[in-house]
Specification:
The protein is mainly α. Helix content is about 60%, strand content about 0%. It comes from Helobdella robusta.
Length: about 70
Amino acid sequence: HVLAEELNSYLANPSKNIESLFFYPSVCASFIKLNSTLPSSAVFERLFCVAGQITTDERCRLSNDHTNKMIF
């Protein structure tokens, strides 16, 4: 209940300054937990590696839609 009340208060706050999060400790903790950067770029590197293997000269006739389906 505390987080819900704090979140409602935070959203009602007209300030758009990031420092206003410090007045709402539960919201701030959730923000830090859920809005953190990825610790590694390995996931993205693998995605581009797979994409590079799919989009080769041998597969040059693949449509954009089909290529996207194979990658994602």
